[in-house]
From TrEMBL:
Keywords: DNA-binding, Repressor, Transcription, Transcription regulation. It comes from Acidovorax cavernicola. Residues 44-104 form the HTH tetR-type domain. One of its GO terms (molecular function) is transcription cis-regulatory region binding. This is TetR/AcrR family transcriptional regulator.
Length: 238
C-alpha cells in the first residue's frame, strides 16, 4: 500500500447499517406558568376568598375593629399579599356590600322577567332578600352598612339600594291594583317590608334553630298576613 493510500484510510470507519438521524426531536418541557385564563380564574378565586373572609370578620368584630393584618392572618398569608387583590379596607367593604346588592338585584330581576301575579312575585323577591341577608355579604350590608365609607362610595351604594326599593314599590302598587294587597302607601309599605327583612341579618345565626328557608317562610307569612287572630267567617243560611 502506498503512503498516500494509507493516509487516505486514516479515520475512515465501516458504513453503519442504522445511521443516526440528522436531527432528534426533544420533548418540550411543561411551562410552570398556567395559561392566562387559568391564572385569571385562580386570581378571582383568591380575591373572593379575601372578600368573604373580610365580610366574616367585619360581621364578627365590626369594621373598625378589623384590620388587614387580621384578614391576612385568617387567610394564612402575609399582609402585602392582600394588596395584589384589594387596594384598602374601604374597597373591601364596598366590594362586599356591592356583592350582596348585586345578588339581590339579579335575583329580583329574574323574578320580574319570569312574570306571574304581583303577589307571587312579591313573595319570591322577599324570599331572595331574606336569603341574601343570611349570607356573609348580606349580613355585612346590614351589620356594617355604608357609614364607614367616604361619601363618593356611599352614593354608589345608595343608587343600588334605590333600585331594589323601586322593585318593591312597583310590586306593591301592582298587588294593590290586582286586589291581592290592601290599599296602602307603596313607599311606606316597601320601607317596612325591606326594613323587617333586613333585620334578619342582625339576629340570624348559622347554628340557630331555624334554617334560612324556614326563616323566610315564617317571615313572609307574618309580614303579609300579620299576627292578629281573625274571626272565622260566618256562613249565613240561605
Amino acid at each position: 500500500m502506498s503512503v498516500f493510500a494509507a493516509v487516505r484510510g486514516i479515520g475512515t470507519f465501516p458504513a453503519r447499517t442504522n445511521p443516526m438521524p440528522r436531527s432528534t426531536a426533544v420533548p418540550a418541557s411543561a411551562s410552570p406558568w398556567q395559561p392566562a385564563d387559568r391564572r385569571a380564574q385562580q386570581r378571582e378565586v383568591k380575591r373572593m376568598a379575601v372578600l368573604r373572609t373580610a365580610a366574616q370578620l367585619f360581621n364578627e368584630r365590626g369594621f373598625h375593629a378589623t384590620s388587614l393584618d387580621d384578614i391576612a392572618e385568617r387567610l394564612n398569608v402575609s399582609k402585602p399579599t392582600l394588596y395584589y387583590y384589594i387596594e384598602n379596607k374601604d374597597q373591601i367593604l364596598l366590594e362586599c356590600v356591592k356583592m350582596a346588592l348585586d345578588l339581590m338585584q339579579s335575583g329580583i330581576g329574574e323574578v320580574r322577567a319570569a312574570g306571574g301575579s304581583a303577589i307571587d312575585q312579591l313573595k319570591a323577591c322577599m324570599r331572595i332578600y331574606s336569603g341574601v341577608v343570611t349570607q356573609d355579604f348580606g349580613m355585612c350590608v346590614i351589620r356594617i352598612g355604608e357609614d364607614p365609607l367616604p361619601d363618593p362610595l356611599k352614593k354608589e351604594l345608595r343608587r343600588l339600594k334605590a333600585g331594589i326599593d323601586g322593585h318593591f314599590r312597583r310590586l306593591i302598587e301592582e298587588g294593590v291594583a290586582e286586589g291581592a294587597l290592601a290599599p296602602c302607601d307603596p313607599k311606606m309599605a316597601a320601607f317596612m317590608l325591606a326594613g323587617a327583612l333586613s333585620w334578619i341579618g342582625r339576629w340570624y345565626r348559622p347554628d340557630g334553630d331555624l334554617t334560612p328557608d324556614q326563616i323566610a317562610d315564617q317571615g313572609i307569612e307574618l309580614l303579609l298576613n300579620g299576627v292578629l287572630q281573625r274571626a272565622p267567617t260566618k256562613v249565613t243560611a240561605p
